[in-house]
Amino acid sequence: MPSNATTTDFSKKEQFLMTPPINRIDLERVLKALPPETQDLFPHLANLTAIELLKRRVWISAQLKSLEQERKAIDLEIEETYSIAELKFGIAITGGWIMKSNTRTSWEYTPEVIDEIKAIQRQAQQSGLANEIKTTHLRLIQHYT
């Protein structure tokens, strides 16, 4: 850029490449085609300070932990009440819900097999045959003072 040019100066070529303004009819058509705005599901969070948000997060986590414990107790009661077959095929509940059981198999390996798996993973990572995928989540840790 020449020394006498400023950041607001444009060459004729740059001015030619700029997008012309959109006409009113096209603008109205674009605006009508936009999806409707979704309602803010948590408007009460907008007025909270950062510290209040952290405290709210702690409170919600405690509620979720309590609810998860309650859910597990309810599940035990349900499993004692209904047969394996009933739960496998589903029990209809009002409101269109169906309670079904699902089975997931987990495997426990010997330390030698775990070491072999880790070695294969390291080799794939170093050779580029494995792709790194990162996810980030927040977690709460209770610190006792």
Q: Give the SSE string.
A: HHHHEEH
Distance between the termini: 60 Å
Order of strands, main sheet, comes to 1-2
Percent of residues in helices comes to: 40-55%
Overall 3D form: extended
Query: Count of DSSP helices?
Result: 5
Q: Strand content of the residues, in percent?
A: under 5%
Question: What's the mean pLDDT score?
Answer: 87
The largest sheet is: 2 strands, antiparallel
Verbal overview:
The protein is mostly helical. The protein has helices at residues 12-17, 24-33, 50-81, 84-89, 111-127; strands spanning 91-93, 97-99. A two-stranded antiparallel sheet has the order 1-2. Strand 1 (91-93) and strand 2 (97-99) form a beta hairpin. The longest helix has 32 residues, at 50-81. The radius of gyration is 29 Å and the shape is extended. The protein starts with 11 loop residues before the first helix and ends in an 18-residue tail after the last helix.
Q: What's this model, at a glance?
A:
The chain is mostly helical and 145 residues long.
